[in-house]
Design a protein that fits this description.
With 437 residues, the chain is of the alpha/beta class. The chain contains 16 helices and 13 strands. Strands 2, 3, 4, 7, 9, 10, 11, 12 and 13 form a nine-stranded mixed sheet that branches. Strands 1-8 form a two-stranded antiparallel sheet. Strands 5-6 form a two-stranded parallel ribbon. Helix 3 runs parallel beside helix 4. The longest helix has 33 residues. 26% of the residues are buried.
Amino acid sequence: MLVDRSARVWAMRPDDLVSAQALQLRADRRESPERAVISGEWLEGSDFARIVDGVAIVPVYGPLMRTMSWWSWSYEEIGRDIALAEADSRVHTITLDIDSPGGLVAGCGDLAAAIASCSKPIHAFVGGSAASAAYWIASSCQSITLGSGAIVGSIGTVIEYVDLEPYFEKLGARIIRVVAEQSPNKRLDPESDEGKAEMQALVDASGAEFVAGVAAGRGVTDADVLANFGQGMIFEGNEAIRRGMADGRGTLDATVAGLAGRDPSFHAAPAAAAQEKPMDWASITLATLRENRADLVTELLATASSDAISAAVTAERDRILGIDDVAVAGHDDLVSKAKADGKTTPEQLALQILKAEKAAGGREIEAREKAEEETKVPPAPPRTETSSSAGDSIEDKAKAAWEKDGALRSEFGGDFAAYLAFEKANASGHARIKRSA
């Protein structure tokens, strides 16, 4: 960082060549509006941004100022182009084409926040350098791709100034300074302990803000940035990727092709730790999770749906097997109905079958009793004597029958007395004769 004599704080590496090139690009654009920094359709309302296959390419070149200028790029201008691309229906993705040594601290954090909150994905391509403030901006994107020879880093703060007062004094100039009594610290001597403490506090506060911004953008902790991101050093592609400061290497054309879907081998996903926003898990809501990690919500819902289907299939299979276990022959209607309704449990079916069995058992007993009753032989009615004559007596009739029927004699073994006793019992109703059908 540099602090000029107006006390403006910079997050920028000295890079005269990049600065000069950016100034020339802007000058060429002013002199020849038809000339474009990059090819593609114009993003309406922008001076430099173009659209290629639905990807808006927003240049970030040279020293970066807070507000728009004819001579340099600004956070205000970059933010405007991002807003235009976000509102343009032709655009589905935004790429920042970065080649910048950095710029003013003022306004840089605001642009980083705008990038992080954009409704369309924003990726960074570093074609030359993304140093200091430029890297702060790049780290706020969803991914960082490095071109050949690209460098990133320079995270940290430094104050450099040139004290020209001794030179002017040698020339005979008198520097007169009057400080109000109410503001004794307004012109501290930078060589005094108080002056050094003032500059150190300023540079430390700016540095802490810088580190926190990069950490938030890359989804890591402040300690990770301090330990792995060089503490002010810059790194080329492979080393930057190894340290987690970038996500891959490629060209601008390949990056645009990948984001446009023309190159399936291109992976614009950020590093594993990048773009993770801190969340208050104790009070998180589904809406908050959707806003910050829509991909995670989609995956969770898909997993939950798959698990629910699998669990439902398993439960239904177990239910059917349980029904088969308790099924009893003769109750096919109950079993079929239970399987078809999708809700009757094996236990419920078993109870239904038991009730049906009890009901059927009662009816069976009734049916058997009825059948037995129907098969009973009623007792023979007692014989009544119709005549009192000796010829009509039981003894006479029995004797006549005995003498006449040889089969009868054979049946009673020739014992007439036994036969006579039977006839008397039959006549009195104490004997029953069961005749075969």
